[in-house]
């Protein structure tokens, strides 16, 4: 299995993450093309080699025109929806922004829809988050492991005033994340970095057994008396790749039966659950008491996401209770690819079966968009994508 390990010895931020991903070999031009499609004011990713306490690293800076604009979540979602990002890249970016919105709403006592992004709604933060989502997809890892995270000490000045470290949103995002004891003065982990960790990391702990293939170093903007670096190690687990087996992890299943909720309410709740990081959301028709037609709403999620997702179900539906169970899940290794057909490029996912063979599934949205642009049947584009993968 291809995995990545985030060594957060000096915390984590959005620019450190993207810098480490580029340093590990992700193509900057591809990331820049995705950023360009967001419609932001002139925004350019600039990388240069730097040194932190004698250690080399990639320093990433977002250069853009000055702006004095704050955004809500729906503004950012519209940018991402209108971009050229693949479905997987959109999902990763929306998951990170969803985590940020939940944290901001919690600390300011408002709703996700009304939360007002300040620092994380600025051009550089949007570029860091969306760029990181693109880069993680291009890196093609199937699992992300992370070290305990230090936050730093002291105070930080934000849009709402002077706050102790970790900043309120950062602290909320790091719920359930193991923190490291490192009393450096200053902010080591930012809300953007914490959101990336909360949204994407599968497991926390020491460096797992792996064969390291690439190492990337992302430099923080500040200088400390220690190397302000994020190290990213990418490689394969000890298991033989040619005999790849399904991997197991633990998930939570939330279920409730609804017989007095409208279709609109259930559809809205389902959309919010996906946006908040659910692994799967499904509805099944039921015959309930008093001969009422009903719906079984089932949500699969990571254990750390169970409480926030349960809160969405209680808030957005008529549910009075939820059944919660912990399950062992088996998943196949997978990676994102793009194949070139005679109609254009099509994104898809390749899964590796236990016998080592591979199965390609073209992304529906990519095929539907191309089919509409070329006035072709959907199946024609899907079949062309499968043939292109088989011939590659």
From TrEMBL:
GO MF: lyase activity; nickel cation binding
* Keywords from the named record: Lyase, Nickel
Pfam families under this entry? Ni_insertion (PF01969)
Return the similarity comment: Belongs to the LarC family.
Classification via PANTHER family: NICKEL INSERTION PROTEIN-RELATED, PYRIDINIUM-3,5-BISTHIOCARBOXYLIC ACID MONONUCLEOTIDE NICKEL INSERTION PROTEIN
According to UniProt, the name of this protein is Putative nickel insertion protein
From which organism does this entry originate? Lacipirellula limnantheis
